[in-house]
Structure formats: C-alpha cells, structure tokens
C-alpha cells in the first residue's frame, strides 16, 4: 500500500521537490516500479477519460476476453499460440494480457484503499458535472396574461419544451430587450438547444441589468456553461467569484461544484 500511496503522490504532484527527485531516481533504477507508475497512471487517466463505471466495465470486458482467448489457446500449440498472446484488444495502449491484468489489479487496489483514492473513482467529467448541475430556473409564477406570446412562451418553458419557448422569447426580447426575466429564460432555452454563444449573451445581459431577482441565477448559469464544452478552468474561475459572494443564492452549490473540479 505504501508504494501505491507514493505513486499517487507523485502522479498528483503532491511530493516536495526533494521527494520527487528521490522517487524519480528510484524509478530510474527499478523497472518494476516504473511499470507500476505507468499502470496506475493509465488507471487514473482511464477513469478520468471514461468515468468510473464505464472504465470498470471496460476492464471487466477485457478480463472476459482474456479468459475466452486463453481457453481457445489451450487447443493451440507452437507459434500460433505465441502469436495470440498479445491480444489486439481496444485498450488505451494495446499492451496485451499482462497489462490488462495489472490494470485490473491496480483498479481493485484503489477501490480497497478507500478514502484517499475516491477522487479517482468518483471522478466526473465536466460534461457530467454540467448535466448534474443544470436545472432550469423556476418560472412557474412568471406569467403575463395580457401578452399571449409571453404566456405561451412561459407555458412551453415550464413544460421543458425549450425548443418552442426559445423563438417566442427571442421575439419578445426584440420588443423589450431589457426584460431581465425574459433574457434569463431565453438564456436557459439557448443552453438547452445548444446555442451556447447566445446563452452567454443573454446571461451577460441579465447581469448588466443588475436585477436582484435574476442576477444570481444568470451568474450561476454563466459559470456552469463552460462545462458543456469541457472548459473546467473557465468554470472554476466563475464559480470562484460566486463562492466568495456572501448572500449569493448559489454560493453553497458553487462551493460544492468548485471542489469537484479540483
């Protein structure tokens, strides 16, 4: 376990300069340690790339294929059997049986170790975090019975029919561009139909209007928007601002999301 912990500290950049230099010298003299570092790095990158569940499914699939091929090999002899020992599986580096076995073992060790390594197996991609964090602003009380267009737009919006709500809201904003609520709803609709550039413009407009009923929400949606395209760095910058604003409606949830992006 101590070796695994050392490797994790090395890969995560937690070592001091002296510890790193010492560990790299140890790796230079120990081929087995170098391989362990490479395997654990592949596990971590695999989880980060595919997500925990999908990565573990891939590992189990590889294991099953190994068993099937080994059973088939029992009926072979000579060069034919040797050639099949490097399995052309769809693995990140296509290293065959030994690599897959070590990957599976490393993954199991990380699970068994527990809390210190949960960050790898609880990892969520920026896109997954966006999906988890996105929830439409509640417009249930936002009706204007004197304006049929707005009423229809809000009805569509409240039914999560953003595709139909969006053009109606854009039409109304053409008449009243400073309506903070309509800009916010249009921004959320734009997010939902993947018109992210327009969503950014709508949310920035709400913020510029400084309407206390909608500004915090606009800042929140603007913060999580970059996660859709995998830009965690920009999302963190915007979340950092929110989590430091006392009284912000989204302060606590911004703190939690910020920690997940670390």
SSE arrangement:
Layout: H1 2-11, H2 17-29, H3 31-50, H4 52-73, H5 78-83, H6 96-113, H7 118-121, H8 126-133, H9 148-158, H10 162-175, H11 180-192, H12 196-209, H13 215-224, H14 232-243, H15 251-260
Helix pairs in contact: 1-3, 2-3, 3-4, 3-6, 4-6, 9-10, 10-11, 11-12, 11-13, 12-13, 13-14, 14-15
Question: Could you describe the 3D structure shown?
Answer:
This protein has 262 residues and is mostly helical. It has two domains: 2-123, no CATH class; 130-260, Alpha Horseshoe (Serine Threonine Protein Phosphatase 5, Tetratricopeptide repeat), CATH 1.25.40. The protein is built from 15 helices and no strands. It has helices at residues 2-11, 17-29, 31-50, 52-73, 78-83, 96-113, 118-121, 126-133, 148-158, 162-175, 180-192, 196-209, 215-224, 232-243, 251-260. The two termini are 24 Å apart.
Uncertain runs: 79-94, 112-118
What does the radius of gyration come to?
Answer: 26 Å
Figure out the total of helices: 15
End-to-end distance: 24 Å
Q: Indicate the overall shape.
A: elongated
The fraction of residues assigned to DSSP E strands is under 5%
**Major β-sheet, in short?**
none
Q: Which sequence of SSEs, written as H and E, runs from N to C? A: HHHHHHHHHHHHHHH
What would you call the structural class? mainly alpha
The helicity comes to over 70%
User: Please, how many domains?
Assistant: 2
Second-tier CATH architecture of the largest domain: Alpha Horseshoe
CATH topology name of the largest domain, in short, is Serine Threonine Protein Phosphatase 5, Tetratricopeptide repeat
């Amino acid at each position: 376990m101590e070796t695994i912990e050392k490797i994790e500290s090395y890969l995560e950049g937690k070592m001091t300069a002296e510890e790193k230099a010492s560990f790299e010298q140890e790796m230079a003299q120990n081929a087995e340690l170098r391989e362990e570092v490479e395997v654990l790095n592949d596990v971590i990158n695999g989880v980060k790339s595919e997500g925990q569940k999908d990565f573990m499914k891939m590992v189990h699939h590889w294991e099953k294929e190994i068993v099937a091929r080994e059973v088939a090999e029992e009926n072979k002899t000579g060069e034919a059997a040797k050639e099949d020992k490097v399995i052309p599986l769809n693995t990140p580096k296509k290293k065959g049986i030994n690599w897959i076995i070590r990957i599976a073992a490393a993954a199991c060790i990380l699970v068994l170790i527990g809390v210190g390594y949960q960050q790898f197996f609880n990892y969520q991609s920026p896109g997954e975090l966006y999906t988890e964090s996105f929830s439409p602003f509640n417009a249930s009380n936002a009706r204007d019975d004197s304006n049929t267009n707005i009423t229809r737009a809000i009805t569509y919006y409240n039914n999560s029919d953003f595709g139909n709500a969006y053009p109606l809201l854009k039409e109304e904003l053409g008449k009243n561009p400073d309506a903070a609520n309509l800009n916010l709803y249009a921004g959320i609709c734009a997010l939902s139909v993947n018109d992210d550039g327009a969503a950014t413009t709508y949310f920035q407009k709400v913020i510029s209007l400084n309407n206390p009923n909608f500004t915090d929400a606009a800042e929140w949606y603007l913060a999580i928007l970059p996660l859709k395209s995998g830009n965690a760095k920009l999302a963190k910058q915007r979340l950092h601002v929110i989590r430091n604003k006392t009284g912000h409606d989204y302060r606590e949830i911004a703190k939690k999301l910020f920690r997940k992006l670390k």
